[in-house]
Write a structure and sequence with these properties.
There is one protein chain. By secondary structure, the chain is mainly alpha-helical. The chain has two domains: about 5-35, no CATH class; about 55-290, Methane Monooxygenase Hydroxylase, Chain G, domain 1, CATH 1.20.58. Helix content is about 60%, strand content about 5%. The chain is built from 14 helices and three strands. The protein has helices at about 30-35, 35-40, 55-80, 85-110, 115-120, 135-145, 160-170, 175-185, 190-195, 205-215, 220-255, 265-270, 280-285, 295-305; strands at about 5-10, 10-20, 20-25. Strands 1-2-3 form a three-stranded antiparallel β-sheet, with no helix packed on it. Helix 3 packs parallel to helix 6 (about 135-145), helix 3 (about 55-80) packs parallel to helix 8 (about 175-185) and helix 11 (about 220-255) runs antiparallel to helix 12. It is globular. The model is unreliable at about 295-300 (pLDDT under 50).
């Protein structure tokens, strides 16, 4: 097979023909260098000699990569909301939702691990636990779960600790959404616009009423209504991911305690009760039926005919 070599923009470039296709590559940047393939594939380091541990490691590593992307995208959305560029935020939220659905489906892979399979290597994990995922913790903090006590398990990593503290000190996604409502002239309670961001957000009847007015006047508030639905979807998929996590753990280990000492499934069930955007869920109970109008009813009868 003949391989031609030429210099393009100072970089040695190669070309050959394979099955009728002209294939090119150069010495500057290859796929493996860009993706860091060798380094990536060298990070699966089992602590046992049990064959099923590799699945467990790869599953959690890929989950961490998707969480990294979610963190990246949430920060982009935060900036777009701060700049009142909601169209950019909507596109970003759509991407996050797609990633979340993939993450939800990925639990099916781990669910192929039977109780026997997992117990062959579980003891080797010692106290290592998903509870110690600092990326997951940062994502929760960004979305609004401001439980500062949770960072204590990261005290051995100063850089991680500093990053989590910095995230706690900034407004959450929901805080930024409320700031946006205030800039739009809606009467958001002052104590919510100038609160201690490190404290847990407390639901407000006034905020629920603001959302009610937006949902009852969709045409006049289309972008705010759409924003509300986008972040509601984000929480919906987040809880679906949590639920699938809980059911997978239940399927594999039942109600055993977690390796990190938590109550396991019971702890995961409790996590399902927390809401990042509480008024966006409670307002749904208060909304009234929309009067479709006689013209819509009439057209339906005509369609039936």
């Amino acid at each position: 097979m003949e391989v031609k070599s030429i210099i393009v923009d100072g970089v040695e470039t190669f070309e050959t023909e394979i099955n009728g296709e002209r294939i090119q590559w150069d010495s500057g940047l290859t796929y493996a260098k860009h993706i860091q393939t060798k380094q990536l594939l060298a990070t699966q380091i089992p602590v046992s000699d049990k064959p099923d541990e590799l699945l467990f490691i790869i599953m959690h590593q890929t989950m961490e990569l998707w969480i990294k992307l979610c963190l990246h995208e949430v920060k982009i959305a935060l900036k777009a909301i701060q700049d009142d560029e909601l169209a950019k935020a909507f596109k970003t939220f759509d991407r996050i939702a797609t990633v979340q659905r993939h993450m939800i489906d990925s639990w099916e892979v781990l669910a192929t691990l039977s109780p026997h399979d997992f117990l062959t290597f579980r003891g080797y994990l010692r106290k290592a636990s998903g509870f110690q995922s600092y990326q997951y913790r940062q994502l929760e903090f960004l979305l609004g779960n401001r439980n500062a006590d949770l960072i204590v398990v990261h005290q051995d990593d100063e850089a991680v600790l500093d990053e989590l503290k910095a995230t706690l000190a900034m407004p959450s996604l929901y805080d930024e959404v409320l700031q946006l409502l205030g800039r739009r002239g809606l009467t958001v309670p002052e104590h919510l616009l100038n609160r201690d961001w490190q404290q847990q957000y407390e639901p407000s009847d006034e905020v629920e009423n603001l959302w009610k007015a937006i949902y009852e006047n969709v045409e006049e508030n289309w972008d705010l209504y759409t924003l509300a639905e986008k972040i509601t979807a984000l929480e919906y998929y987040f809880h679906e991911w949590r639920f699938k996590h809980m059911k997978t753990v239940s399927r594999v280990i039942g109600f055993k305690k977690g390796t990190g000492g938590s109550s396991g499934v019971s702890y995961l069930v409790k996590a399902l009760e927390y809401s990042f955007f509480p008024e966006l869920w409670s307002v749904r109970t208060t909304l009234e039926n929309v009067n479709a109008g006689d013209d819509i009813a009439d057209s339906r009868y005509h369609d039936d005919e």
